[in-house]
Every structure is written in C-alpha cells, then in structure tokens.
Amino acid sequence: MITLFRNPAFNKLFMASIASQLGTVIGNMAFAYYLVDRFASRPSLASTAELMYSIPTLAVFWIVGVAADRFDRKFIAAYSDWIRTMLTFVLLVCVHTDWLFLCFLVLFLRSAVARFFGPAEMGLVQGCLAQEQYVQAAGLNQIVSALFMLFGLSLGAAAYHWLGIEGAILIDAISFIISGVLIAWGRYPEAARIPNGKSRVRDISASLIWKDFAQGIQYIYRNKLLLNLIHGFFFFGIVNGVFAVLPIFVMKYKLSPENYLLHSSLIMIFLGIGFLIGSMLAPVLINKFSKTPVMIAGFFLASLLTLTIGSITSIYAYLGLILLTGVILAPANIVIGGWMPELVAPQFMGKVNALTDPVMMLGHSLALGFVALAFPSWISISWLHYILAICMLGVSIYYFVVLPPLVRNQAKTTQTA
User: Fold this and answer.
1) CA 166 to CA 159: how far, in whole Å?
2) Angle at the Cα of 307 (from 303 to 308), degrees rounded to 5?
C-alpha cells in the first residue's frame, strides 16, 4: 500500500477525494441535523433531503458515461467540484432566508453535477495504477470511508452545534475548492485522461450519446461476471438509502430521544471502528479464502447481525453489534471496490460506472421515498433494520448461487488466453 503514495498523481486524487468527502459529509450531516432539529415533527424532510442526493443520478446517468469517456476526465472532475462550490454558496443564501423548497432544488442540482465527478475520478485512478494495485487502492479507500464513519457524523454534529448550519455549508464549499485545485494540479497519463481520443462538444450528438450508452449496456451484458455482480447493486442501494437516515432516526425516535445528537454520532463512530478493523483484516482474509467467499460470507453474517440489531433496546448493545457489523462488512466492500476496475477495460470505465450508479441510486431513492412515506405511520424503527437484513441476505444467497461458477469460468478463460 505504501507504493501507492509514491505515485504523485494518485496522491493528488486521493487528497482531493478526502477533501471532497470531508466537506460533503459535514455539510450533509449538518443539514440533516438542521431539518430534524428545526422540523422535529416532520421526519420526512430528512428523507426528502437524502432523496435530493440520489434522484439526480437517474436524471443524468445517460450523459455521465459519455462525458467521462469522450472528454478530458481531469477537467470534468475539477469543474464538477468548482460548479458545486458555486451551488453551495447559493444553498447558503437559501438556508439563510429559510427558502426550504429552493434548498431542496439546489441540493438536487448540486447532486446532479456531482454525478460527473465519480466516473471521471475513477477513470483517472484506474489509469494511474497497475492492475495489482486496484485492491490496495480499494482497501485504502475503505479505510478513509471508515474514518469518515468514525468522525463524519460527529463532525457534522459539532459543526452544526458550534458553527450553525451556515458555517457547516461554508466548510462544504471550501472542501470543493480544495478538491478541484488538487485535481487540476495533477499530471495524469493521456490514456487516463482521454482514453478514446479527443472529442469536441459540437461533435456530440443524440445518436452518438445513444451509441455510447448502448455500447456500455452491451459491454456489461457480455461480461456475465460483471453483470451478475451489478445485479446486487440495487439492493445495496436500498441498504444505503435506509441507513442514510437510520442512525438519527433510531436514536431520535427509539433509543435516545434526549441525546440523539451524541448517540447517533456514536453509531457512526462504532461502525467506523468496525470498518477500520475489517479493512486491516481484509487482505489476510482475501489471500486465504479468495474474494468470492469473503464477500458472500460478509453479507450473510451482516444480515443476521442486522436482524438481531432491530430488536435491541439497549444503546450499548446496539453500538457493540454495530461495531461487529462493520468488521464483517468491510472486507466484502473491499472485494467489490477492487473487483470492478479489474473487470472493466479503461475505455469503458465511464460508461459502466455511469450505468451501475443508477442501479444503486434507484434502490437508494425508492428506499428513501418509502421511508419518507411509511415512517413512522406504517413501519417502525425495528422494521427498518429488518429491511436491511432481508436485502443483504437476499444478495448473499444470490451471489452464493451465481458467482462461484462464473469466477471459475473466468479463471479458466484467463489461463487459456
């Protein structure tokens, strides 16, 4: 993993990713606290805000992959950050003047612009690393994600408490500026920046967009292992959607109504500790048991734990099981994160990433919409946990049945080639 940091291009991308994630986590968490605190009788507003982060994927996915594979990925990623900076300042004005509807509209636009960042940045990372470094990079990203779980919700709560919602949004804007500057300063191989050669905006037509989009679908369909791996992403989206609001909801409306700020932060801290431990164990487990068993077992065991967590009434038992869940899930996440770049050719990374995001975000949006409508009138906090457990159990069973023979077939094909 140390060799990754000897790569200056990767260093800048990595630091840019940290800066961008830091501001986003603080801003989003602070905004969620703001909604729950100011509109305590309307929990649906927090779910609606989360919808504004996910629905835009379904609106722009058809053009995102084309942009990432046709234009300079460096400029796409940098300008995505800088445009989000301008929109964040607009959000600041809307919050200051209590224009809640416009706040949601700006969140929608900002999230739509953010969709262009991911495929471009992933393509740059893929082009800067050797294939054997993909899993290492995925492990490193998992550790960073664990750190944000450790401190992200707490930083959001602290920023909201000490700086107010306006101060938290300012931090969000500054982080995008830093991220954009770091990406713009980086030097990347031309094959990573423009894998399919230079294109001009006026050369892009509706027929070309459709052609590229169709090529991405065909590429996924021909790669059976990739196709079946992506099938599970819809359910991962449901899990992410429910969990986006679960830490605040479980403490605010069940376990700790008086101290929900503190204890909802502790959920993410304990989950982050679990992910850190799991990220350190992942290389050992993957080397010993291979990727597929580690991933399947991780989702299966996590589903059983989540089913148990739904019935817990003790804060401390809840936090302990959340930590254990993080330990179990981290290796499974690392397997997926490292597997995708191995399965996708560089010139198709933008198209594939643009097609996988909508699958996940569709599940994410449907879950949040369901929570906004059904909680607390029709479903309880416990049933939110049961939904997570059912999704992870279903994915683990599906992967157990489908993936092992596909992995063996791919290994034979690779050896023959």
Assistant:
1) 9
2) 120
The candidate with the shortest Cα–Cα distance to 121, out of 33, 238, 19, is 19
pTM of the model: 0.71
> Which pairs from 51-55 meet CB under 8 Å and 24+ separation?
51/365, 51/368, 51/369, 51/372, 52/104, 52/107, 52/108, 52/111, 53/28, 53/107, 53/111, 53/244, 54/111, 54/237, 54/241, 54/361, 54/364, 54/365, 54/368, 55/108, 55/111, 55/361, 55/365
**Tokens standing for 407?**
């992995």
Neighbours of 294 (CB within 10 A): 19
d(C-alpha 360, C-alpha 364), whole Å: 6
3-state secondary structure of 166: helix
Encode pLDDT of 266-306 as tens digits.
887 888 888 889 888 988 898 888 889 999 999 999 999 99
Handedness of CA 178, 57, 189, 201 (dihedral sign): negative
